[in-house]
Amino acid sequence: MEKLKYLSQGETGLVVEFGDAIDPAVNTRVHDLARRIASECKGLVEAVVPTYRSFLIFFDPLLISRHELTAKIDALASAAESAQASASAAKIVVIPTLYGGEAGPDLEFVAGHNQLSPDEVVQIHSSTPYRIYMIGFTPGFPYLGGMSEKIAAPRLKVPRTKIPAGSVGIAGAQTGLYPVESPGGWQLIGRTPLKVFNPASEQPFLYSAGDFLQFEPITAAEFEQIENDVARGVYQPKTFTDKEAAK
Amino acid sequence: MITVLQPGLASTIQDEGRAEYLAFGLPRAGVMDRYAAHMANLLCGNPVSAAVLEMTLMGGSFRFGQACRIALCGADMEPRLNGQPIGNWQALTVVAGDVLETGYARTGCRSYLAVGGGFAVPMVMGSRSTYTRANLGGVEGRILKAGDCLPQGEAPPVSGPPTRLPSRFIPAYPEQITLRVILGPQDDLFLPEGIAALFSGEYLVSDEADRMGYRLAGPEIRHRDKADIVSDALGIGAIQVPGSGQPIVMMADCGTTGGYAKIGAVIGADLWKLAQAKPQNTVRFVQYTDPAAVEALREEQNLYRAAAEMISTGGSPAPTDRVGVRRLNLRIDGQAYEIEMEEVTGNEDN
Q1: pLDDT in tens, B266-301
Q2: Taking CA atoms, which of A122, B105, B119, B176 is between 20 and 30 Å from B223?
Q3: C-alpha dihedral (B87, B92, B95, B96), degrees to nearest 10
Q4: Would you state the pLDDT for residue A55?
Q5: What angle do CA A5, B22, A132 make, to 5 degrees?
């Protein structure tokens, strides 16, 4: 295993870097260790922000010195490496999605661009869970990995000024989902009725970095039903683990 | 209850912000100048975490609905109470119907109004801070507008003469500032002359300077190869350098992640200086070490403690200002002494 690199982000920020690559194995190590630190160092660290190949720890150097913190991380990291086999199961969050039509105005374009039918695009897009490498850009925006090159499509030449919350899109070989209304240049292929960012909820975000998202095609009637349930606060998001999926 | 008569340019309710959801892409938000905000709260007898009103460049006017302690700290917006000039950096008692007016920031950029009990807008995701880009916190997640009613928290009744902070607690807001910087995390992606440019050049605060970040203009900070990195996390104070070689210092509302190389970070104890800088002011950077930056944090905490103690013991109610304060550290027979010398003048207008 590559040695961890400790870098500074001001006197209250410690960057722990695992290399330079976008790689699922590296990202798994990032999230695994980030979770351990967040739970083992409660009260000592203010926040741990995991990204593709590193995480940033915000801490109060008047509570714990940089030296003490890196020593703690070294210890947790070596414990983590030896416990690799028993790594906890990955959580997969289901994102019910209405593909095409008004909800996904660019589905036809993505299909034509790849000489596929719209149904084939939907089938490929919803066939596999996608790793959330990190969350950033806007609250809840997931950087997903693992989409098939078969349904890749270029960004819009002129970005839209307003994309409705819940829109599911494709940009190059990436797929993603807009949690809040924002401008953007992704090809929109569908929309979920879920509120992935809900400030009023006890758990304002539906998923964490390190989880996986699985898109699931739904009908317009199901979209309406789920949208109603979400609005009334009675919708239970569907999740499962990769270990359950393997059974 | 406090009624907003004139909102000012971009006034929002802020507290210490929310760190809990940084890993979910939610910016921290919170006060831009924590020193001024902390002092305003301390003057009102509040915990430093109480919500305050942050005014930027142009203040507003406000009518108080009940008797309470108030304090203004930060930029000098030439505040007046019922038409009479009042000073910054002091606590005073207002009664129902009193009107506070503030104008253009004569020095500095941001002024903080604290009221006894704090501004009791609802807590959203662990904080009262306004984050306008997600319509979160504060008053409906937006900048204040005329007619807004700001709820006020409970506070023990306080009266008495104004309590003014001694001048050693009051910072100056010059048009040229120097910020201390710790290199990293990606300083190795810059050419030595790029790093030299950062520490020798003078940078102008551009018009694009807001709660998200301050774009500066000056000598080009050149990268070794390219400006892009595999996106990673960043925090307030981080100095991002895009391909143009012009630095951007991240501030309270900055995104949680970014894709440009970060040459360094402004130390926490200096962030208020930038928060009080206006467009066309100039910035210099000096290299600093991590232990020294931690020491600067400790000194900042000591100042809060000293101010709180001074205020709780009645402070310096005398209407005098302290000019020409000089502090000396002496060591006599192995014992350390801190000596303060000052000239005292009377006849101040407060």
Answers
A1: 999 999 999 999 999 999 999 999 999 999 999 999
A2: B176
A3: 70
A4: 98
A5: 75
**Are B276 and B75 in contact, with CB atoms under 8 Å apart?**
yes
**Is residue B294 within 8 Å of residue A62, measured between CB atoms?**
yes
Q: Is the pLDDT of residue B57 over 60?
A: yes
Q: Is the pLDDT of residue A216 over 50?
A: yes
Angle (CA) B302 B308 B310, round 5°: 100
φ, ψ (nearest 5 deg) of residue B176: -120, 125
Record: contact B268-A12, CB cut-off 8 A? yes
Spatial contact of B70 and B44, defined as CB atoms under 8 Å apart? yes
**d(CA A140, nearest CA chain B) in Å:** 5
Q: The whole model's pTM is what?
A: 0.90
The whole-number pLDDT of residue B321 equals 42
Report whether B14 contacts B113 (CB < 8 A): no
Instruction: With beta carbons less than 8 A apart as the criterion, state whether B293 and B182 touch.
Output: yes
For an interface test with A, the pick among B16, B26, B190 (most A C-beta atoms closer than 10 Å) comes out as B26
Q: Are B343 and B323 in contact (CB under 8 A)?
A: yes
- Long-range Cβ pairs for the range B296-299 (8 Å, 24+): B296/B180, B296/B267, B296/B268, B296/B269, B296/B270, B297/A11, B297/A12, B297/A61, B297/A62, B297/B267, B297/B268, B297/B269, B298/A62, B299/B269
Provide the pLDDT confidence category of residue A133 given band limits of 50, 70 and 90.
very high
B134 neighbors A139 (Cβ within 8 angstroms): yes
pLDDT of residue B155: 85
The pair of three-digit structure tokens given for residue B38, joined into one six-digit string = 């902390």
For residues A81 and B257, the answer to whether their CB atoms sit within 8 Å is: no
SS3 A121: helix
Query: Mean of the pLDDT values across residues B21-46?
Result: 97
Size of interface A-B (CB pairs under 8 A): 136
- A71 — phi, psi (to 5°)? -65, -45
Token pair in block for residue B130: 């306004």
Which domains does chain A show, CATH number per domain? 5-87 (3.30.1360.40), 91-245 (2.40.100.10)
Which class for A107: exposed (0-12), middle (13-18), buried (19 or more C-beta within 10 A)?
buried
Which residues of chain B lie closer than 8 angstroms to A65, CB-CB?
294
Q: For residue A216, how many other CB atoms are within 10 A of its CB?
A: 12
Distance between CA atoms of B26 and A47, rounded to whole angstroms? 12
- What ipTM score was computed for the predicted complex, to two decimals? 0.92
